[in-house]
Design a protein that fits this description.
alpha/beta; ten-stranded mixed beta sheet; 20 helices; Bact_solute-bd_prot1; signal; N-acetylglucosamine/diacetylchitobiose ABC transporter substrate-binding protein; Chitin_NgcE
């Protein structure tokens, strides 16, 4: 997802036309058309010459070539990237680094892809991110295995790939062994809450769904909502809903959903999870007005103690810091057990994965420079700088030594440790971005949680969306190996 997205946590407002289109009220082009960038797989003929490969320059960067970088300016901001660019500039003093930041990634960059002049490195995140499955399918990206096989900044005896957290490389591999995306942040998704606000209710984080409902009822009597979420961007709901489904029915349910398999959404675990979330609406545990809130507005209401729980990713600590009380004690919880005896996975099962997807376009003028900047970013110095600035882990395995972690990030570390091997990583948002956000999120889950659609109707509608995507030959298909 990116912060994203998805990684999804820094989404801009949608206008009425876009929302109407998502709900099927007006005719729009197919997802493949909406999310596609330039077609074709020809190399650009205006690439800079490679430099001289050496121990200090293992990717053969042209030391005087300009570097063009575009960063998504969302929950993580852009300063961390500017700091890494300063390191690049120190290594290559003759190189001019052009830095740009935007929340409109696809809007700003699709014309450049179409014209064959994309940047050298892109942080492809946010609501307006380019569809990565489409970019891969249309052969618009550079294989990053050269970066992954290069020596790491900190220890030249280790390859970059050997310094990354488990699963990060695989996330960037859509099919085959090529690695098309490097997910820089490492995001923990789940149910976020304030320990302080639970303590005020003499409550603890609910490990069962019955306990969740009891806590929400207790809060309701005090005039506090149990839950809120970004109603204008309801694709945040899967951040806690997908691991809930996996916990109930097993990881294989999520894999079948990712694979667009027939009737995958009709699995009993999906219906059970939807019915549980719908119960939050039916019992009045959702903050009034939530369907009209942006992510920032929902987070602010949560910070103000108007609601106890919010589905989110670990970027939320940085993104909401301006409105977070000093004594908030931000924390993340794994999905509650629906039925501890029957659930296929134990309490503590969590969704954690790479976030903030970085790509090097195939037609970039200076792809070696783009990969070199990523190599710098994956060093301990840049990683720790990122952690300190934005309260999020990076994909570098470790890197927190000697750092004093804020409450939310410390909690993320704790739930990861407790989860052990029970970590899931849904891929539908990476492989089929438009399906995940506009169809499953806005047109289905958002409608259900607003009370305009029942769980059964929601299951049927999402299955229809999935079937349509599977049958659409313009959409490249991916599967779990």
């Amino acid at each position: 997802m990116g912060s994203s997205t998805g990684s999804t946590g820094e989404f801009g407002r949608r206008d009425l036309i876009r929302r109407a289109a998502a709900l099927g009220l007006i005719a729009v082009p197919s997802m493949g058309v909406l999310s596609a960038c330039a077609s074709g797989d020809g190399d650009s003929d205006n690439k800079v010459d490679k430099g001289t490969k050496s121990e200090k320059n293992p990717l053969a960067v042209n030391e005087s070539a300009p570097l063009d970088v575009v960063i998504f300016d969302g929950g993580f901001g852009q300063q961390y990237a500017k700091d890494a660019e300063a390191e690049y500039k120190a290594a290559f003093p003759k190189a001019k680094v052009q830095h740009a930041a935007t929340q409109e990634i696809q809007t700003q960059l699709q014309p450049r892809f179409n014209g064959g002049t994309p940047p050298d490195l892109i942080d492809n995140s946010g609501a307006k991110q380019m569809d990565m499955g489409t970019l891969v399918g249309k052969k618009q990206l550079t294989d990053l295995n050269a970066l992954l096989d290069a020596p790491s900044i900190d220890d030249p005896s280790k390859k970059v790939r050997d310094t990354l957290r488990p699963g990060v490389v695989e996330m960037g591999q859509f099919d085959g062994q090529e690695t098309w995306v490097l997910f820089y942040a490492y995001t923990v998704y789940g149910v976020w809450y304030s320990k302080t606000n639970l303590e005020k209710l003499d409550a603890q984080y609910p490990e069962t769904w019955d306990e969740m409902l009891a806590v929400c009822e207790k809060a309701k009597k005090k005039g506090i909502a149990g839950w809120t979420y970004p109603g204008k961007h309801p694709y945040y709901l899967p951040f806690s809903l997908y691991p809930f489904i996996a916990k109930i029915g097993g990881k294989e349910v999520i894999d079948r959903i990712d694979n667009l398999e027939p009737n995958a959404w009709k699995d009993p675990a999906v219906k059970a999870a939807f019915e549980a979330y719908y119960e939050l609406y039916k019992k009045g545990y959702i903050l009034q007005g939530t369907p009209g809130l942006t992510h920032i507005e929902a987070q602010t209401a949560w910070n103000q103690g108007k609601a106890l729980f919010i589905p989110n990713g670990s970027w939320v600590e940085n993104e909401s810091k301006k409105t977070t009380p000093a004594d908030f004690k931000m924390a993340v919880g794994a999905p509650s057990s629906l039925d501890a005896k029957r659930d296929k996975m134990p309490f503590g099962t969590i969704w954690a994965s790479g976030g903030e997807p970085f790509i090097v376009p195939k037609n970039a003028k200076n792809p070696q420079g783009g990969m070199e900047l990523l190599r710098i970013m994956l060093g301990k110095k840049s990683s720790q700088n990122f952690i300190k600035q934005v309260s999020s882990l990076t994909s570098l395995n470790g890197g927190t030594e000697g750092l004093s972690l804020p409450p939310g990030l410390s909690s993320s570390q704790e739930v990861l440790a407790k989860a052990g091997q029970n970590v899931i990583n849904p891929r539908i948002g990476d492989w089929y971005t438009a399906l995940q956000k506009e169809k499953i999120g806005v047109a289905a889950l958002g409608e259900m949680m607003a009370g305009r659609m029942t769980p059964d109707e929601t299951v049927a509608k999402i299955q229809k969306f999935s079937d349509e995507a599977r049958a659409d030959d313009s959409i490249k298909k991916y599967r779990h190996k």
